[in-house]
Give the backbone structure.
Amino acid sequence: MSENSSSLDTFPKVLSRNVSQFGNSPAYREKEYGIWQTWTWSEANDEITNLAKGLIKLGVKEGDHLAVIGRNRPYLYWSLMAAQQVGAVPVPLYQDAVADEMEYILTHCSAKYAIVGDQEQVDKIQEIQEKVKGLKDIVYVDPKGLRKYDKSSLHPFLDISGAGKSDDGELKEELDKRLEKITGETTAVLLYTSGTTGRSKGVVQTHKAIIGASSGANELDRWSSNDHLVCYLPMAWVGDFMISVGQVMVAGACLNCPEGADTVQMDVKEMGPTVFFGPPPLWERLKTEVNIRIEDASAFKKGAFQYFMNHAEKVGRQILEKKSVGIIDRLMYSIGGFVIYGPLKNMLGLTNVRIAYTAGEAISAELFDFYRSLGINLKQLYGQTEASVFLTMQDDSDVRSDTVGKPIRGVELKIAETGEVMYRSIGSFKEYYKNPKATKETKDKDGWVATGDAGYIEETSGQLRIIDRAKDVGKMKDGSMFAPKYVENKLKFFPNILEAVLFGAGQEKCVAFLNIDLSAVGNWAERNNINYASYQELASNEKVMEMMKGHVEEVNQDLAKDPTMSGCQIHRFLILHKELDPDDGEITRTRKVRRSFVAEKYDDLVTALFKGVDEVSTKTEVTYEDGKKGYLEATISLVDTQTYMLKEKSDAA
């Protein structure tokens, strides 16, 4: 931000600044039909202004809620900002949300208008339109498949922006009046939480909050108009909104939109982003792809990979952090960079990345260290939707796998007597929409907000350490700590394990559900001539269960070294007969496990694990791609594992 950044307290003002200072610099890029298209800040401003005037002509009033649904495209980001300019409130929704989820949010926020990406979203809205009484008009970007639809309340995006472009001055006059009314306290967006513990809540965020939090984050990591970002995460997720809208706008950086979900990795290689954001599941998936490629490589390449990765593990982080390393080690690391690390980063599309972020949930130390050893400046940050994301971030000079950094400018932290992390922040939310009770329970009269996370601030470093969700941290029957996420992340470090859910609070021992990673385990099965026809068949294979048992026991050995966590060793596990799925309510759209829901839905399996039976038959309701329900029956084997005593006492139990 410029020197008078305090006056840039609304997004229309920030956009005006960007046009003035970076008018001819690239603002948005999109790959369509294999060709990159670019819009400068001046061109993007024209698009946003024309759309805003078109929305006024369509009938959008100040205070109206306008839903935005679709994949990451410049047109939909412009829609968010055009809605802000006319005084309406943009409400981004997950593009893969099923009709029932859409119905809840559209009804809850009383949306009157929607701008969507394509026919799929139009169909979902029309399916529930009779239940969403207030919705008047739908604007669509991609006309494919919509030619024969009733157009009485359907409008092509280009028609709406075209109406603004052909304005004779009347619409511009009205737009200017509305822009004058927008202040830092005006609602900038309504973002819905992931709903880990229940129904999603609508988080009301102001212009001042979003811009303030983005400014603090940009300041710490020295964002500039020369930075390039790639947006591929759901637009409804607060992480994408804050980075792709908040930080990009505040820095005047360039946002790159891939052609589609299937081409993201290839497009990222072409974009060469300087800043990259990925939640832990994304970093897990990328490492799984690396492992699959290495397993398919020749013996020589495997050997070279293992040798140089061992060397990277030894000195890579020190070199990245500019610490003292011997000349021979530096030389070997340089050779490794030429033959292994460089090609690997290029394959991942991360060659030009100067900052990589991870957030959303905890990442395993092993996974975190893997990327930093390659020379990728991966850093953790901590925040939540209610805080405009950014609460703590790691400075380049003090990056660790077990902490999430220090408070950024504008943030205060404290730890409640219960161990819960509390904060006050410039980015703090205004309220939960239509939910004053929840607002009061979360945010007190002095502005302190309860995060729901248990943690503590280190006395020596001042960095925050997050233990787990406060509600998930408990005690075993013998009084030892039960912190499931810590153990689950260790399990998910193995490329073969996609998801893990630990149970054990109040019990004598811990047990776990596992999901295999179909790509990694399927690749392994093919190399070992194991035939399978479905996820369920592969998951029930005896050799797969034996492999999973080895992974679990390796984690148990590691836990046995930690006096605090040794009680969380896994005594028994099973491989679920289906992947946990957001359509079935088992995980959120951002892949956070709904622990209590899973425990209740699979109560028979949890009970069987604790009772010690060897096999259990179960019947599970599932949701198919077309939204229809069905049932999946399976007989599941339960596996006993070896646990270990604390290392200083003994080797094995």
